[in-house]
Amino acid sequence: MSADVSSNSYPVPTSQPDIVFSQPTSVIRWIEGTSECRHLESIFLLVDDARDAHIKQLLKVFPQLHDKNRVVRYANVKLDQHYPENHSTKGQARPKFGQLFRVETRFTAIGNTSVKFNHRFLTVPQSQAGRNFNNRDEDEQYSELETDDEPERLFASAEGALVFIKWQTDDKGHRFFKPTPGVFHDPSLAAPSVLHFLDPSQPARRPQGSSRPANAFRVQIHLRKSDEDELGHVTNSRYVSLLHDVLTFGLRSGYYSNGTGSSRTANNLPVICNDDMSMDASQVAIPAGATYYKRANIFELYVGYENELKVKPGVYVWSWVEPQRIQDQFDVIRFEICASNGNQEQVVSLSRAIIHEDTSERASL
Q1: Predicted pLDDT at 2
Q2: Based on the number of CB atoms within 10 Å of its own CB, is 192 exposed (0-12), middle (13-18) or buried (19 or more)?
């Protein structure tokens, strides 16, 4: 992501910019902590807010620069809260309703047409609710916590990239966009990445003409008008709930069978044909008696935005579990969100979830 702008042309800020920028302290709302799906969805929305806030605060100190249209290329979210070192003093993982938190954002790479981000989601001790985390003069004032105050902890992190674009219109009146030189080019506005993922790579695209694995299954998706943004595309955060629904189906059906878990498939699960999506009962994707687990925690969720997803019929998701596990304990779930146009299939999103079996006991209703 190297920039091609001479250092002599870098603008001079009117004041010291915040290379690592912390948004003002906020509060976890009730809906943001009710379930794993809602929690993940809220994090994706907060990533959008934090990224825009970081760009806005930089533009304030660089009045010579002007913002441009931009599209997100991918977002990779990690739920650090699942690791014991990030649990609360009461053993709590996911932040609850009313928890104070802040989002810390930085550029980690600046290219000619794109920028790459890191975000960290941190709880805020009650005694530091009024602290300005961008003001180093306040560090000493808040160096010690009050009695019974819970220390700051990391509960989520995220990485993403966006591309600056310019909208154009073809001879038929259809709008499309192309990458355009970005707003920022000075590499000193970037800071080193501080995130570590189980898998930081982009999900690999299948070779052209190749078939999906035999254990891949397909789920039809029904989109609504309310899923659109102002550009007529499905909103980024909506992808999360779509993928979570598919993940839940795959876990409960047994199609994610990978040799672990206390459940066993009652019958053979058939192969779903790639060409016409029909079930071929003569071919077995998952044999009867295969072991699997029905509940899992998402440790990482990567959502790639390959093409525009619009609200229309013919949208479906292919998914499968990879045979190789990470560290012999994490399963890798692949997703391809597709849109059909007649006999043509377009892959809209290449996404991935890294999951771990949830063995916790839950109270019965």
Answers
A1: 44
A2: exposed
Token pair for 285: 């994707």
Calpha distance 107→112 (Å, rounded)? 14
Contacts of 259 (CB under 8 A, 6+ apart): 291
3 state DSSP class of 255: coil
Asked whether 239 and 308 are in contact (CB, 8 A), the reply is no
d(CA 227, CA 234): 5
How far is the first Cα of the chain from the last one, in angstroms, to the nearest whole number? 52
- Which amino acid is it at 246? V
CA atoms within 13 A on the CB side of 24: 2
- CA-based nearest residue to 192, from 121, 118, 134: 118
Q: What count of other Cβ atoms lies within 10 Å of the Cβ of residue 354?
A: 24
Smallest CA-to-CA distance from 342 within 306, 311, 313 is with 313
- CA–CA gap between residue 44 and residue 112 (Å, rounded): 25
Supply the pTM of this predicted model. 0.92
Residue 3 in this model has a pLDDT that exceeds 60: no
**pLDDT higher than 90, residue 26:** yes
